[in-house]
Batch of 2 targets.
Target 1
Amino acid sequence: NAGVTQTPKFQVLKTGQSMTLQCAQDMNHEYMSWYRQDPGMGLRLIHYSVGAGITDQGEVPNGYNVSRSTTEDFPLRLLSAAPSQTSVYFCASSYSRNQNEKLFFGSGTQLSVL
Amino acid sequence: KNEVEQSPQNLTAQEGEFITINCSYSVGISALHWLQQHPGGGIVSLFMLSSGKKKHGRLIATINIQEKHSSLHITASHPRDSAVYICAVRAWGGSEKLVFGKGTKLTVNP
C-alpha cells in the first residue's frame, strides 16, 4: 500500500492563479480531509469528506473547493490564489468518519503565493 | 484560550533522558491523538487514546479524562526522537473537526 499520496511537494503561484493539490489514498478510507499548517498555529481543517459524493466545510474553507468523486481521491482546488494562502497543506485520511482511529497523513505541500 | 494547550513549547534533552510532554484540553472528548512531525515535515500518528494508557516501544501515552489531560512520555530518549509532537482532540457531539495543539518541539542532543 502506498498510503496517502499528496502532490506536488512544492508549488509557487502568482496572486490570482488557480491550482489543484492532489490527494489519493489506497486504504479504502471513508474519511479524508485537508489541513493547513501556519507558523505558530495548530493544524486547521479546510474541508473534509466522509465518503464519495459527500464533502463539507471545515474551520477555514474560504478560497478553497473540494470534491470527492471516488473513495480514493480528494483534490483541493485554490480558485484564485492569495498571499494569505501561503502555507503548508496536508491531506489526511482515516478508516471511519469518527476519526477515533489512526490518522494517515500525506507528505505535505509547501505553497507560496507571491 | 485555545481548546488544546501543550507544554512545554520547546524542550531540549540529553540522550537517555526521560521526556514528558503535556496536553490539556477544555472540552469533553471522544478521542485524543498524539502525532509526530519530523524535521522534514511528514506527520505520523503515534497513538489514539480514549482512556487509560498505551505503550509502543519507548513511547507511552496516558490520558486522564476527568482532569482533561494527556501526557506523552519517551523513555531513554535518542537524537532520532527530535521532532515536533502534536496533540489533537475530537470533541463529543459528532463533530468532524479535530482541534490541534500548536506542538512541542523536542530536541535530543547526543
Target 2
Amino acid sequence: NAGVTQTPKFRILKIGQSMTLQCTQDMNHNYMYWYRQDPGMGLKLIYYSVGAGITDKGEVPNGYNVSRSTTEDFPLRLELAAPSQTSVYFCASSAPGQGADEKLFFGSGTQLSVL
Amino acid sequence: QKEVEQDPGPLSVPEGAIVSLNCTYSNSAFQYFMWYRQYSRKGPELLMYTYSSGNKEDGRFTAQVDKSSKYISLFIRDSQPSDSATYLCAMVGAMGNQGGKLIFGQGTELSVKP
C-alpha cells in the first residue's frame, strides 16, 4: 500500500536553478495538495487540485507552478529557485465528500535547500 | 492575529504523564477540527477528527472542542516515548476542504522521556 509517494527526499539547489518535485498517489483521490513547512510556521498551502486538469493557488503560490494531467500525479515546479524556498515540501491527497476531504494523506516530504 | 494559534513548545514530559496540547482560533466559522501527528522526518498523519463541541475519545487520546471559547485540546493519557512527535491542530469551516481551506496550527513538539 504505497499511498502518497514523493521524490526526491532531499535536494540541494543553487540560486536560479529549477526543479520538479514529483508526487503520485494510488488511492484514486480527486483532491491533491502541495504544502511547505517551515520551522515554527506550520503547514502553508502552495497549490491544490480538485481533479485532473484543475488547479488553483493556495496561500503561498509565488515562485511555484503545478499541473494535474492525471488523477495520480501532481508535480510541483520551482522556477528560478531562491533561498526563501528552502523548506520541507509535502504532497497530500484526500477524497471528496463532507467529512472526507479534510482527512489528508501525506507523503514523507522533500527537504529542499537553496544555496 | 493568526486564525489558529498553537504553542510550539517544545514540551518535555516523563513517561506516564498526562499531556495537554491546545489550540485557540479566531474564526467562529470553523466546524471541523483535527489533530495530526508528525514523527520526525515524516509527513503528518491524521490522529483525531471531531465536528462538534464536546469530547471524543480514542484509546489514550481525547480530543476536546469548546466552540464557545474557540479552544480545542488534545489530551494524551499514560504518555509513552512513542508519543514523541509534533502535534498539529487543523480546522476548517462547514464547506470542508474543497477549496483548500484547511488551516493548520504551528505544531507543538512533544518529547516523552523514559
